[in-house]
Amino acid sequence: MGASSTIDPETKRLQALDEYQVLDTEDEEQYNNLVALASYICGTPISLISLITHNRQWFKAKVGLPISETPRSHSFCQFAIESDDVLEIPDALEDIRFYSNPLVTGNPNIRFYAGAPLVNSEGHRLGTLCVIDTEPRELSEAQKLALATLSEQVVAHFELRKKKKELEQEKQQLHAANQKLDELMLFVNSQLPEAITKLEHAEQHLSQNAQDQHCFENKSLQFLQENLAHLKNIHATINQDA
């Protein structure tokens, strides 16, 4: 059994969230546009992209809420990520899970909540796209569908962000590899003249002894001449490309 199979689902979910490198990043227009659209479609004063860590919910984008995070224990979204569909709370004061929640009894005085889970391609629920109101209400089926569709767009942006980061990392690795190759070529090029000179001296020595017509020396001379020509070609090519 592999080590990954022994990791509990929540740990895997948190690892998946970390891979997007989105927590505690600056505002980005594409996410701000999505929460603004969700707020408009659902007719709510508050909309959030909420990401759930082990101890907090952090808002990647928000409309109508001045804070950027709350403790996870206060979040409605911790329940929404356990749902396959949009979780709707028509009146938080009538729900045993939330009626004493500090976000209900105090600012921002939540009464209505609806959250669509942000589910990536591996099935990990990263957080929610949610809408909130200070008055009890319910969404229409069309509004729920729109909220779920917008949540998919949030995940698509996360995936695009992740892919871009991976491509940047690959580009950096390729650049580093090319630098090492350039350094190697410079080193080889610096050593070639001396190697060629030594081989030329050896060639002269073998040529002088070739008159004895010893088969071994003739073959050695031929081998040396072939390799000397090869090294000279390499040296010329390197200097031509430099």
Automatic annotation (TrEMBL):
| Keyword Coiled coil belongs to the record | yes
* Name of this chain's protein: GAF domain-containing protein
Q: Which organism is it from?
A: Adhaeribacter swui
Q: Which UniProt keywords apply?
A: Coiled coil
What InterPro entries does UniProt report for this protein, alphabetically?
A: GAF, GAF-like_dom_sf
* Gene3D superfamilies given in the database record: 3.30.450.40
Q: Which residues form a coiled coil?
A: 157-187
Which PANTHER family does the annotation name?
GAF DOMAIN-CONTAINING PROTEIN, SLR1143 PROTEIN
SMART domains recorded: GAF (SM00065)
Q: List residues of the GAF domain.
A: 26-168
